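Sequence only, no structure available. Ideas?
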Amino acid sequence: MRVIKESVAETTEGLNPESIDLINQYAKAELKEEDVFTFSVLLCDNEIDRDNECFGTDSLNILSELFTGKTGIFDHDWKAQSQMARIYKTEVLTDPHELTQYGEQYTYLKAYVYMLKTEENSQIIAEINGGIKKEVSVGCSVKKKICSICGEEIDSPMCPHTKGQLYDGKMCFGILSEPTDAYEWSFVAVPAQKRAGVMKRYRNSISEYGCLKEYVQAEGNYRLEKELEDLEKYSEMGKRYLKRLYEETVELGIVSGSGFKREFLEKTLKNMGEEELLEYKKIFNKKIDEAFPPLFQLNTENKKCEKLVGDEFLI
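Reply:
I predicted one. Tokens follow.
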């Protein structure tokens, strides 16, 4: 399950020797304080977002390690030329004076970022300092989405609850658990929402996968998997029906006296849908009825019957 959370960036002032050492772990040439521009970002937190989901505190600690060293890009465009910054340090912080909606201490993941002071980056640095480049979005992967009510995976057969609904006065929400990877963080144009702009949206789009089935399997949604299974079953039934209709229409076209050869009919009718095939089938049946009209089988010719005795109906 891939997720994206958006937040805001803040500039930082001054670098201590420890920070320079951390930055130089990612540089081939030794960098000095005057060579880099640094700022911090709130990556994600344990507050419930607009999708009624949040990261668990354990997940934030795991993500802290996963995001260290990750590249910053623009609009999640995974191209080398889009790389412009890198996270050199992260930390998980707790606000002792604030609670989440569900009563836990508010906790968030903060990252420290550096970029080179180059002519090419001067415009970006100016926009960060001026508050233009502010919203930051991160992409990561989590293994599970746990229901806050029953503790089972949401959308699994064991969980009967729906996010956003109240159960005995408690709202159901999903806890994003067991992070498996952190992809990148990105400056985005979408305005931040909720608490310093924290927002989450699924990265999963059909275009990122080879087919719908791969998308559903990656999402790990039981209800979607069951729905797709039913759709596949009915799709196979529809294909078999359309194949029989096609074969019947070809045969009717041959025996109807239409004059078309089998090869021509097969090629012409091959890509037609149900409506078109039924129309051709109707035309061919009409031609067959005209060519072979029904014959009367009652032997009543040249007979005058004053009284019916039964012979007239012998076949």
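Residues 226-291 form one domain.
Hope that gets you unstuck.
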